Amino acid sequence: MALWGLFRPRRRRRFPALGRRIGNIAFWLFNTTTTAALIFVKPDEIRAPWQLPLGLSFVLGFLLRDLMIYAVHRTYHAVPLLWRLHALHHSDPDVDWSTAVRHHPLEYMLSAAVSSVAVLVIGIPGPAIAFHALCGFTASVAVHGNVRWPVWLERTLQPIVITLDAHLVHHSIDASEANANFGAVLSLWDRLFRTYRRLSDEPVFGVRELDP
Predict the structure, then answer these.
(1) Domain range list for the chain
(2) How many CB atoms lie within 10 A of CB 197?
């Protein structure tokens, strides 16, 4: 995604990229190491309350995990105190692949704590968690890239997953647009709860209350 954005950028940068990307990656390294040290769920602690065939349990666990992240993300936008943390992610004026890992440490740790508790209570199978984490991270980098997906790819994937154009709407400085498309991987929840919105024009990125 970084190479794609380097050779075929969708937008011209407003600010020098190097310092911003170093800062974004530094957030990621600090967040992952700190959270891993503070919050850790052992696989043998997870006991699924349902007795289902492995395949069905995996699919159900993946869907529950995705729904949980949708709910947490939407809560960060709805609660003012939590929004102050999440606004760091939205404050990036030049959205690109590095924006995917730009998160406030407290937001990162709170989200990890909520997920850990939910995993223990609901009993989402470990393989489903790992697979969703891989899909979620890959999707996050893909939908923040400073690139343009082929039209056919956007049209094919939009009914199933959150695409690049759909997530760019979410990063708009316009609050009415930013309060949409909360999904991590699947677009199912946004469509089900009527928070899905299509891209009409190229959005301006940032947070209205903050100078770029």
Answers:
(1) 21-36+49-192
(2) 17
User: Using CA atoms, how far apart are residues 211 and 67, in angstroms rounded to an integer?
Assistant: 33
How much of the chain is helix, strand and coil, in % rounded to 5? Answer: 60, 0, 35
Amino acid, res. 126: G
| pLDDT tens sequence across 84-117 | 999 999 999 999 999 999 999 999 999 888 887 7
Looking at the DSSP assignment, which residues form a beta bridge with residue 172? 205
Q: Sign of the C-alpha dihedral, residues 65, 68, 74, 76?
A: negative
Q: How far is CA 143 from CA 110, 118, 189, in A?
A: 23, 26, 17
Q: Which residues of the chain have pLDDT under 50?
A: none
Nearest of 73, 96, 99, 95 to residue 86 by alpha carbon: 73
